[in-house]
Amino acid sequence: MEAVFRTCPVTGLKVERNAETLIMFNAVTSIVFLLVGGLLALLLLLTRWQAVHLLPADFFYRLLTLHGIAMLVAWIVFFEMAVLYFASAILLNTRLSVPYLAWGQYGLMVVGAAITAVTILVGQADVMFTSYVPLKAHHMYYFGIILFAVGAILGVCVFFATLGAARHEKTYVGSVPLVTFGAIAAAIIALLTLAHGAIVFIPTWLWALGVIPMMDPEVYRLLFWAFGHSTQQINVAAMISCWYLLGTLTVGSVPVSEKFSRSAFTLYILFIMIASEHHLLVDPGISTAHKEWNTGYFMHLAVLASMMHAFSVPAAVEVAQRKKGYTKGLFEWLKRAPWGDPGFSSLVFSVVGFGFLGGITGVIYGTEQLNIIVHNTLRVPGHFHATVVIGTSMAFMGITYYVLPLIFRREVMFPGIAKLQPYVFGTGMFVFSTAMMFVGGFGIPRRDWDITGAEAPFPVAYGPTADLALAVMAVGGLVAIVGGAMYILVAVSTVAIGKKINR
Amino acid sequence: MSLKEEHRPLGTNALIYFFFACLVAFYLLNWKELIGVWNVG
Ligand code: HEM
Ligand SMILES: [Cu+2]
């Protein structure tokens, strides 16, 4: 495949055909999975809303498994592949190295995700996305995940090969841009993570095939979360790269201090594994002292890095705005910000949602001392919908509004809807997550179809306040689903029938 | 980095203080609940 370039009229960046095509394929596929996951979210939401209680029990658990896989795995990781190709080939003005391998990435991930999704849908894998042993899914479920992970490893290899080639061919001066640096952090963590994924899923697959007689549940959970938690750290690093990029694209900000931000990315790589332990806080296999030291104290080193970014991104935006002359008082810069630009409002929702709602609750729920009352209640999904949905997903949505004109070269359709979309989705999700955490405070379990205890030997009642809060959660979730549909409408129709922008 | 006086990010600074106030408040709230659950003291 020969490298063919065009020059972007807006940014002046050289854009290579292969890189562009692969970004498009990965981005579109990720949005397809968002659509699937969103439809499932609607059904799950209407089931957890106790007054409606839509699905029968087996379907609830089946679709909950698929919602976790479609959203957390497929939507996010396909989008991350697009981000990796963008941060290497496009930002460094070069071609994508080994495009064949990049197509391999795409093909394996599509086939893997499809196999896993179908296995779940036909009822052979009602194991939730954590697939804790001794729950056993059909072996094709694990096989699909392994294919998907191998695909992701290929994508990371293409990324590093492209960086190497760019360096060798001197397509950029000085050190790589901060956004690329952040993507490098994400990619390094991805290699560590995917290695753990292989260590945990290959034996589990062999166990499902009957080759290995037994899996140890404690070891499984330890290794699973070395994979599962680190995956979230990839998301965080990718999200933060998008924050810096959105700051630049929307108000022309430059990082306040490159060194400060780069050190924060480095902290992620160093302390990534420490925080994994917050998933094992009720596990008897680890000593209490270990849990307390690790999650009560050391964990804050990883948190520090997130705070450094979450403070420096708004500071960069503020400085850029002040330089435009908005210097009155403390907040004129904020008042005069481009609130009508969906890229900007998504950025604000993402930073505030991730920092305040997701971050604060995560830090506190993740300590050994407090986790004991939080574990396995609805507080946990309440917390992580704030991080992976308001945080990561909204950052990716915000970036989309720039990827559409710059990479797909089409005018964003329905600009009015696009303008409103972040507000609808963000507000709905804020209400949904907050209410979910509040309901969890009553002790209502997550992943539970039967909170009334219909089949329990004694009556279980959480009281009318809990029922009301569940209804608030449902209304917030419904608003968010409308916001998600608006995003998909704008993105899909722009890609399919949007007006072409002439070069 | 040297910034002109009027370009310094003072608004963000205020937001950071607000963030830490929320963090501490949420910690206290949860500790109170924890002690309530365990009925310590
Ligand atoms: C409109 C948006 C969404 C709504 C209304 C929604 C709703 C829900 C509901 C009701 C549950 C079940 C909670 C339980 O019973 O334990 C759930 C679980 C979950 N959601 Fe979402 N969700 C949305 C978007 C997302 C997105 C974008 C992601 C990931 C990026 C995501 C990731 C997850 C995960 C990982 C679980 C846990 C699955 C498990 O426990 O195995 N959700 N969601
Ligand atoms: Cu985690």
Top keywords for this entry?
heterodimer, A: 503 residues, mainly alpha, two-stranded antiparallel ribbon, 14 helices, B: 41 residues, 1 helix, 71% helix, binds protoporphyrin IX containing FE, binds copper (II) ion
Care to give the gist of this entry?
The complex is a heterodimer of chains A (503) and B (41). With 503 residues, chain A is mostly helical.
Separation of termini of chain B? 51 Å
* Share in β-strands of chain B: under 5%
Share of residues in helices of chain A: over 70%
Order of helical and strand elements of chain A:
EEHHHHHHHHHHHHHH
- In DSSP terms (H or I, runs of 4 or more residues), the helix count of chain B works out at 1
| Overall strand count of chain A | 2
Order of helices and strands of chain B: H
* Alpha-beta content class of chain B: mainly alpha
Instruction: Look at the helices and sheets of chain A and give the structural class.
Output: mainly alpha
Assembly level: heterodimer
What Rg of chain A, in angstroms, do the CA atoms define?
22 Å
**Low-confidence stretches of chain B at least 5 residues in length (pLDDT < 50)?**
none
Q: What's the structural blueprint in terms of helices and strands?
A:
The complex is a heterodimer of chains A (503) and B (41).
Chain A: E1 5-7, E2 14-16, H1 17-48, H2 57-90, H3 99-121, H4 139-168, H5 178-209, H6 217-251, H7 258-271, H8 288-323, H9 332-335, H10 342-365, H11 368-374, H12 379-406, H13 415-440, H14 464-497
Helix pairs in contact in A: 1-2, 1-3, 1-14, 2-3, 2-4, 2-5, 3-4, 4-5, 5-6, 5-7, 6-8, 6-10, 6-12, 7-8, 8-10, 10-12, 10-13, 12-13, 12-14, 13-14
Chain B: H1 10-38
Residues 229, 232, 275, 278-279 of chain A line the site of copper (II) ion.
